[in-house]
Amino acid sequence: MTSAVLDRPETLAERLVRRQLSRLAHGELTVGGDTFGRGGGLKATVRVRDARFYAEVAYGGSVGAGEAYMLGYWDADDLTAVLRILAANREAMDGLEAASPSCPRRCAGCCTGRRATRATARAATSPRTTTWATIFSRSSSTRR
C-alpha cells in the first residue's frame, strides 16, 4: 500500500542521507545519480535498487547500510572503493550514526516497534555503538 504518508519517511530519509553525503571531502561517490565529494583519487558508484535503502541508512547508520546491501537494496560498481571512500570520510559519515532529528536513538526502538527501556536507550547512545570509525580502524589494524 502506497500513500503520501508512507512515502514521506523515505523522502526525509533520502534528504538525511544526501545531506551527510554532501559533506564528503575525499574521493567521489555517486549515489542514485548524484555525485558527492571533491574527487581526489577514488571514485565509485552506488546503484540504489530500492528506495528503502535511504531509510535503512538514515535510521540504521553503517549497520543499516550493511543490511540494505544484504537485502539487495543497493549495489556498487566497486564495493571496496565505496568502503574506502566512506572510511576516508568517517567524520562526515558519523552523522549517520548519531541520532537523527526525526528518529532519535535515545528512544531505542521507536522505529523498530520494540519497547524502549533504560538499558536499550543506554546501549543505543553508548560510545561503543558501532560507527564507521570503529569498523575501519579494526579492518586497517588487521592489514598490518
Strand and helix layout:
Elements: H1 4-21, E1 27-31, E2 34-39, E3 43-48, H2 52-70, E4 74-76, H3 79-88, H4 90-97, H5 118-124, H6 132-143
Parallel strand pairs: 1-3
Antiparallel strand pairs: 1-2, 3-4
How would you characterize this protein structure?
The chain has a four-stranded mixed sheet. The chain has helices spanning 4-21, 52-70, 79-88, 90-97, 118-124, 132-143, and strands spanning 27-31, 34-39, 43-48, 74-76. The model is unreliable at 1-9 and 99-116 (pLDDT under 50). Helix 1 crosses helix 2. The protein has a domain at 4-103. 51% of the residues lie in helices and 14% in strands.
Strand neighbour order, sheet with most strands: 2-1-3-4
Main sheet characteristics: 4 strands, mixed
Q: Regions with pLDDT < 50 over 5+ consecutive residues?
A: 1-9, 99-116
- Helix and strand content put the structural class at alpha+beta
Give the SSE order as H and E letters: HEEEHEHHHH
Summarize the amount of helix as a percent range. Answer: 40-55%
Report mean pLDDT, rounded to a whole number: 75
Quaternary state of the chains: single chain
Descriptors:
single chain; 144 residues; alpha+beta; four-stranded mixed beta sheet; disordered N terminus
Short overview:
This protein is an alpha+beta fold.
